[in-house]
Inverse folding.
C-alpha cells in the first residue's frame, strides 16, 4: 500500500494487514505477469493500492451501507431444515475529507500542503451455518446397537477383555449388542455429554449431520487513516501516512453456548513516509520508509472454567492456572469438537515489518533507466498456550476395535465407546514463546528501451538476499544428527539383543539421531544456511506489428520467501508436550482415565539441554542444513488488436513453473520391501508388520510401552515417532489460454468478457513415504474453465443523456441518472481426492460422475458405481498406487451473477447524494462445497456446506 509492504505474519502464513476504506483508495492495481525488475519478494501476483491525498479544493463524503436478513434468501440447508435466515445486521459507515492545510492568519497551504483523512466503522453480526454431528439420545446412554443394523463391521469391542493372543497380538471380546452398561459409563464423560445438545434434525444412518444451526458471529471493526502531503518546491515533494485499525470477533457459536465460542481482537498500525526529489528533468530519486505492526489476542470464552466441576482430579486441576483454565478440547469422532480455539490457542501474537526503499529514475534518450535498493526487517512474536490451559482429550478406536488389535476400526462407534468408557488420548503442554526475525535485501536495475516507435524492450535484473530466521533467545531446534548415537543407544541395544526380530540382527540395531539446537553444539544462530544466488532476470517486449495490432511477451524469474511469512522457530524441547497414554501394554492394564489423564504429571521443558533425547517416543521435525527458496519462472506471449466499435481483443498464452517447493517427508517409515503390493486388503502383511515384540526402549523413559510393533522396530529411528523434514523437491506447472474482449467506455456503456482455459499440475506430495520423488498430480487449485463477464451501463434517461434531457426536476429525481452494473462468473470445480481406494474399485470409472439433473446434496456422485464401502476390506500397510486427485471427477463449480444499481441525486452543483443497491448471487445459485469422499462413511458423496445465498446491500453516500 503506497509502496509499503502491507502484510502480517502468522506462523506459516501471511495475510493482508491493513484494509483501507474504499473511499480512501485512489488506485487499485493487480499485477499478475509483470516483467518489471522493481517487483520482488513474491512468487505470485502483486496487489498495489494507492491512497488518496488532499487537493487545493475541499472534498469530502459520508457513507452508510447496510445488509440485513430481511433482504436475503435462505440457503439450501436452511430450506431443508425449515429454518429462516438467522437474524443479523451489517452496518458499514464512515466519512472522509481532504483539502489544503489552512490555519487562519498563520498558514495558507494551497499549492503546498494538503491533508486527507478517512474513518470507517463496521459493527456487524453474521450467521455462520454449522451442519455438524451431536450424540443421539441412544448414544448418550451407551446404546450403540442401532449401528449394528448397518452391518457387522460396526461391532464395538470391550477394552476390559483385552488378553494376549498368538502371533504377538492382543484380542478382545465384542460388547454384547453394542450396548455399554450404564454402570460403566465414565462419570466425567457423563458430565461432558451435557455440553452437546440433542439433535435438531434427522441425520444419516450413522447419526451424522444431525445438527444444523446458523450460529451468530459478532464482529466489530474501525479504521483511521490520515495523510499529509507537502511540496517543498516544484522539485521536492513528500508525504506522511498514518493508519490504525481495530478488529474484534466473537464467533464459533456452534451451539449458542460458550463451549465452542472464541473471542479475539486485533490492532494494526502503519506508517509510510515518502520523499521524491527531482534533481533534473531526466533524473529523480524516491526514498520511502514504512512500518506495519499487528497485535492479536485470542481466548476461549470459557476462560476461568472450573475443571473440577467436570470431575477432573485435583492432580489434573493443579497442572493448570485457575484463572486461565478453559473447557478442555474434546474430540470424539464423529461428534462436533468442544473447547475450540481458532488459530494458535489462548494467548497472543504480533508481527512487524520495517521497510526502506531507494528508487532512482534516469531518462537517457530512448532509455528509461530505473535502479534501486530495498531493505526489510521481518519480526514475529508469539505466546499462545493451547494445551497448557486445559488438556486435549482425543478418543480413538485403538482399544475398542477387534477381535484383534490390528483389526479394522468400526466406521462409527469405536471413538464413542472409548469416550463413554473413559479411555482418553491427547496431550498437555508446557508452552514457550518465541521472537523470530529475518532480514531481506533487494537490488535491481531495469531499462525500458524504446528501440523504435513500434518496438519497446523491457530489460532488467534483480538480486535478493533473504537471511535465515533467527530466534531472539535461540529457543529453537535446528537440525537432525543423523549419524550420532543417541544417549540411550547402549541400553536400548542391550535390551534388543535379548529378543531380536529375524529381519534385524542385534548387530545391526542402531539408535542414531536426535535434534540439535540453534547456537548450540557448533550450530549457528540461524536455523539454516540461506540462499545466496537469487538472481532474477526479467525480459519483456511490446511490438506494434501492424497498425492497431500489438504483440506482447516476456519472461522472468521470481523467488519466494522462506522467512517469517512462511516459517517459525521449531520450539520442540522448549514447548514440551506430554502425551496422554491410557495404557503402556496394549490395553492389558490402563493407567490413565479422563478424570486423571496425566497421572505422572507433565514432562518439564529442558530446551537445548535435552539434546538428542528431546522428544523421545514422540514425533520430531527439523530444518535441513542447506535450505533453498522456491522460485518461479513465468512467461507469456500475446496479441492485442483494436477492432471497430471501441473493441479491444486480446489473446495470450501464459505459463508458469514453480521449482523447489517444499515437500514434507517422514524419514521414519517402514521400508518399502515389507509393504504389501496386493490390490486387496493383505491380512498377512498387516499381521506381520503389526506383530508386537518386547520394546527395547521400555524402562528407559516412562513414555515407552512394554511392546513395539515389527514395523516400528524396522524404522530408521525407532526411538522416535515421525521424523519429518521439508525438502525442496516439489514443483508445479501451469499453462493457460487467456482471451479477453473489452468495449471501452463510450456513450455510457462498457463491458468486458474474459475466458481462461488452463491446467495446473503439481508434484508437492509423496504418495508413499519411501518414494524418492513427489507424485505428479492435477493440483487442488486447478480450475479448467473460468468465464467472467462484467459491464456498466449508464441508462440513457435523464438530464445530459440521450432521452429526457429536459425532464421536470421531480421526474428526473426518480427516473434520471441511473447506472446499472453486472458481474457474472462461471468456473469449473476443484478435482476430487478419494484416498487409496482405486485398487478396490470394481466398476466403470465413467459411471461415477452423475448428470447435473441427478445430483443431490446426499448423492453428488454415483456412490454405487463400484466403490468398496466395507470398512473391514480397506487397504492398510500397502504401497499406494491410487492417484491423489482425479481431473475428471470434480466438485461443484461456481456460478454467480451480481448486479448493482446506482443513482446520483444532485443537491447543488457541488453536492450530491448517491444511492447504491447491490445484489450478490442474484439467482440464488447454490454453489456447493466439496462432497465427502470417504467410502466407509455414511455421508459418502454428500455435501454439508455451500457458498452464500442471495444477499442484498443498500448504501447511501453524501459527497461534496
Amino acid at each position: 500500500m503506497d509502496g509499503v509492504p502491507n502484510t502480517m505474519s502468522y506462523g506459516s502464513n501471511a495475510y493482508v494487514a491493513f484494509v483501507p476504506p474504499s473511499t480512501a483508495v485512489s488506485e487499485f492495481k493487480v499485477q499478475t505477469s509483470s516483467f518489471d525488475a522493481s517487483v520482488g519478494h513474491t512468487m505470485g501476483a502483486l496487489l498495489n493500492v494507492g491512497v488518496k491525498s488532499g487537493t487545493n479544493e475541499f472534498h469530502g463524503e459520508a457513507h452508510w451501507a447496510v445488509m440485513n436478513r430481511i433482504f436475503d434468501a435462505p440457503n439450501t440447508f436452511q430450506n431443508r431444515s425449515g429454518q429462516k435466515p438467522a437474524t443479523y445486521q451489517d452496518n458499514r459507515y464512515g466519512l472522509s475529507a481532504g483539502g489544503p492545510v489552512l490555519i487562519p492568519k498563520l498558514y495558507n497551504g494551497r499549492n503546498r500542503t494538503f491533508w486527507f483523512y478517512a474513518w470507517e466503522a463496521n459493527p456487524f453480526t453474521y450467521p455462520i451455518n454449522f451442519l455438524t454431528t451431536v450424540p443421539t439420545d441412544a448414544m448418550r446412554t451407551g446404546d450403540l446397537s442401532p449401528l449394528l443394523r448397518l452391518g457387522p463391521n460396526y461391532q464395538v469391542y470391550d477394552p476390559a477383555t483385552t488378553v494376549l493372543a498368538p502371533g504377538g497380538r492382543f484380542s478382545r471380546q465384542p460388547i454384547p449388542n453394542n450396548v455399554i452398561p450404564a454402570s460403566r459409563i465414565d462419570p466425567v464423560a457423563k458430565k461432558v455429554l451435557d455440553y452437546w445438545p440433542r439433535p435438531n434434525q434427522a441425520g444419516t444412518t450413522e447419526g451424522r449431520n444431525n445438527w444444523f444451526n446458523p450460529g451468530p458471529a459478532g464482529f466489530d471493526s474501525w479504521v483511521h487513516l490520515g495523510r499529509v502531503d507537502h511540496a517543498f518546491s516544484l522539485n521536492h515533494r513528500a508525504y506522511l501516512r498514518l493508519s490504525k485499525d481495530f478488529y474484534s470477533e466473537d464467533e464459533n457459536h456452534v451451539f449458542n453456548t460458550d463451549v465452542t465460542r472464541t473471542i479475539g481482537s486485533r490492532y494494526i498500525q502503519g506508517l509510510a513516509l515518502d520523499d521524491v526529489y527531482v534533481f533534473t528533468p531526466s533524473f529523480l530519486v524516491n526514498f520511502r520508509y514504512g512500518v506495519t505492526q499487528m497485535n492479536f489476542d485470542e481466548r476461549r470464552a470459557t476462560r476461568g472454567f472450573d475443571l473440577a466441576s467436570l470431575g477432573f482430579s485435583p492432580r489434573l486441576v493443579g497442572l493448570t492456572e485457575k484463572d486461565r483454565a478453559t473447557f478442555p478440547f474434546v474430540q470424539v469422532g464423529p461428534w462436533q469438537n468442544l473447547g475450540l480455539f481458532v488459530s494458535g490457542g489462548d494467548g497472543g501474537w504480533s508481527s512487524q515489518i520495517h521497510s526502506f526503499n531507494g528508487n532512482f529514475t534516469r531518462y537517457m534518450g530512448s532509455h528509461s533507466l530505473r535502479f534501486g535498493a530495498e531493505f526489510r526487517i521481518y519480526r514475529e512474536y508469539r505466546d499462545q498456550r493451547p494445551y497448557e490451559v486445559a488438556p486435549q482429550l482425543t478418543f480413538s478406536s485403538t482399544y475398542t476395535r477387534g477381535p484383534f488389535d490390528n483389526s479394522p476400526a468400526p466406521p462409527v462407534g469405536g471413538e464413542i465407546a472409548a469416550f463413554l468408557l473413559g479411555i482418553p488420548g491427547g496431550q498437555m503442554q508446557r508452552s514457550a514463546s518465541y521472537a523470530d526475525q529475518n532480514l531481506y535485501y533487494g537490488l535491481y536495475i531495469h531499462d525500458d528501451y524504446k528501440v523504435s516507435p513500434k518496438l519497446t524492450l523491457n530489460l532488467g535484473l534483480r538480486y535478493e538476499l533473504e537471511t535465515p530466521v533467527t530466534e531472539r533467545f535461540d529457543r529453537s531446534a535446528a537440525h537432525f544428527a543423523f549419524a550420532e548415537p543417541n544417549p540411550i543407544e547402549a541400553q536400548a541395544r542391550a535390551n534388543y539383543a535379548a529378543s531380536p526380530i529375524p529381519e534385524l540382527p542385534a548387530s545391526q540395531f542402531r539408535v542414531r539421531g536426535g535434534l540439535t539446537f540453534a547456537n548450540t553444539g557448533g550450530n549457528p544462530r540461524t536455523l539454516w544456511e540461506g540462499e545466496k544466488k537469487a538472481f532474477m532476470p526479467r525480459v519483456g517486449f511490446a511490438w506494434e506489428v501492424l497498425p492497431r495490432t500489438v504483440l506482447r511477451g516476456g519472461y522472468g524469474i521470481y523467488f519466494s520467501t522462506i522467512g517469517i511469512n512462511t516459517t517459525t522457530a521449531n520450539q520442540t524441547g522448549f514447548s514440551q508436550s506430554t502425551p496422554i497414554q491410557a495404557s503402556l501394554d496394549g490395553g492389558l492394564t490402563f493407567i490413565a482415565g479422563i478424570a486423571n489423564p496425566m497421572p505422572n504429571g507433565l514432562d518439564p521443558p529442558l530446551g537445548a539441554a535435552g539434546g538428542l533425547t528431546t522428544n523421545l517416543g514422540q514425533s520430531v521435525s527439523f530444518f535441513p542444513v542447506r535450505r533453498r527458496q522456491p522460485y518461479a519462472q513465468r512467461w507469456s506471449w500475446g496479441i492485442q488488436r483494436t477492432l471497430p466499435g471501441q473493441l479491444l481483443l486480446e489473446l495470450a498464452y501464459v505459463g508458469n513453473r514453480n521449482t523447489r517447493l517444499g515437500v514434507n517427508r517422514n524419514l521414519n517409515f517402514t521400508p518399502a520391501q515389507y509393504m504389501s503390493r496386493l490390490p486387496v486388503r493383505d491380512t498377512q502383511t498387516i499381521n506381520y508388520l503389526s506383530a508386537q515384540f518386547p520394546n527395547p526402549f521400555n524402562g528407559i523413559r516412562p513414555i515407552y510401552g512394554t511392546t513395539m510393533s515389527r514395523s516400528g522396530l524396522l524404522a530408521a529411528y525407532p526411538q522416535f515417532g515421525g521424523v519429518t523434514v521439508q525438502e525442496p523437491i516439489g514443483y508445479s506447472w501451469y499453462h493457460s489460454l487467456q482471451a479477453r474482449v473489452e468495449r471501452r467506455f463510450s456513450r455510457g456503456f462498457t463491458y468486458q468478457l474474459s475466458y481462461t482455459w488452463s491446467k495446473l499440475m503439481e508434484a508437492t506430495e509423496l504418495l508413499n513415504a519411501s518414494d524418492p520423488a513427489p507424485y505428479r498430480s492435477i493440483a487442488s487449485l486447478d480450475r479448467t474453465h473460468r468465464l467472467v463477464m462484467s459491464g456498466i451501463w449508464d441508462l440513457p434517461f435523464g438530464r445530459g443523456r440521450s432521452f429526457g434531457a429536459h425532464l421536470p426536476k421531480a421526474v428526473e429525481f426518480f427516473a434520471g441518472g441511473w447506472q446499472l452494473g453486472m458481474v457474472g462468473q462461471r468456473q469449473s470445480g476443484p478435482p476430487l481426492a478419494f484416498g487409496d481406494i482405486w485398487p478396490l474399485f470394481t466398476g466403470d470409472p465413467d459411471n461415477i460422475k452423475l448428470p447435473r439433473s441427478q445430483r443431490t446434496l446426499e448423492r453428488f456422485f454415483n456412490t454405487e458405481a463400484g466403490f468398496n464401502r466395507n470398512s473391514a476390506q480397506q487397504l492398510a500397510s500397502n504401497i499406494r498406487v491410487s492417484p491423489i486427485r482425479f481431473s475428471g471427477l470434480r466438485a461443484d463449480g461456481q456460478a454467480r451473477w451480481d448486479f448493482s444499481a446506482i443513482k446520483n441525486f444532485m443537491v447543488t452543483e457541488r453536492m450530491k447524494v448517491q444511492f447504491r443497491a447491490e445484489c450478490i448471487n442474484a439467482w440464488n445459485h447454490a454453489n456447493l462445497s466439496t462432497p465427502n469422499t470417504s467410502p466407509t462413511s455414511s455421508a459418502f458423496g454428500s455435501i454439508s456446506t455451500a457458498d452464500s445465498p442471495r444477499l442484498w446491500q443498500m448504501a447511501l453516500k453524501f459527497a461534496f
Summary: The chain has ten helices and 44 strands.
